[in-house]
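Q: what does this look like with flavin mononucleotide bound?
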Amino acid sequence: MSHEVDLVGPALGLSAPDTAAVLETAVLAPSVHNAQPWSFRTTPDVVELYADRTRRMPVADPDDQELRLGCGAALFNLRLALTARGVRPAVALFPDPARPDLVAEVRRGGTARATPELTRLLDAVPRRHTNRRPFTDAAVGAAERHALCRAAAEEGALLHVVPPAQRAEVGRLSVAAHRRQLADPAFRDELLHWIGAAADRPDGVPARAAGPAPAPHDRWVVRDFTGGTARTRVPGRDAEDEPLLAVLIPHVTGPAAEVRAGEAMQRVLLTATVDGLAASFLSQLVEVPDVREELRRLVGAAHPPVAVLRIGRGWPTTRTPRRPLADLLRP
Ligand SMILES: Cc1cc2nc3c(=O)[nH]c(=O)nc-3n(C[C@H](O)[C@H](O)[C@H](O)COP(=O)(O)O)c2cc1C
């Protein structure tokens, strides 16, 4: 057990070590560039999750939409960890207009018993990693696709699996958006800042978590975190032909809907992990506004998509660092 438990008091009827363990599960969530834009405050009655705006991405994510998705993913982990400890989480999103950074207030809403499905999702939390490497060409089966879509629906979002007729266009848009982002020096600077050079850095994306450097003939472009330490491309070992491409679309818009979408995204990612699937993101498709609008029209969505996932069967990848709890606790 981590020595950091001493920093966290008991909350929601849990012991102090259990409360710390719940927070440690929350922070294993994904976040843009692994910025981990969250902090917490605990009292005996409440666990508060805050957005940490000092860790925003003004260029890639000027509206903080992806920041809220990351907070939603952390909230989903937190809900799982509480449920597994017998606490039914009662969540209020943005409960205090005077404190707009307070994303969620979680109280004890009664007792809970984790279902086998929730237990499997919780077990998958430390095994889920963004996998930017090429996948094998083994297809994702219909039952797995169904489970992923159901995971999104359980959390109130729609997961649109891109059908064959739309794949080429999604690939074209992903390449075009990637090039546009890289042509912007401000985007490049922001990205470079988060490519972790120092081995002991507790945030950012280490080069070991990068995929191969993108090549001009790629049909899907995975963001380049190689930071100049480009892995040599193995000839013929390109990105897989047929990953499952899935577009996450909320049913409503606004900050709370984005947090909910982050919960849905994390449920999808954990469901994939449970089924032995790997996933990475093609966020350029939602970060470049007119590309996002083209994508929305292409998939026939009522609201703009908030995330695009590439899902398939991968070889194991590596974990990324996390900040110590001591740095995440608010007085
Ligand atoms: C909303 C969101 C968007 C992301 N977009 C991308 C992306 O476009 N490309 C990418 O390689 N990783 C993307 N990531 C993955 C993060 O870089 C990753 O979660 C972070 O480095 C932590 O690593 P982990 O997911 O392996 O725990 C995204 C994550 C989130 C939450």
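The CA atoms of residues 52 and 106 lie 17 Å apart. The two ends are 23 Å apart (CA to CA).
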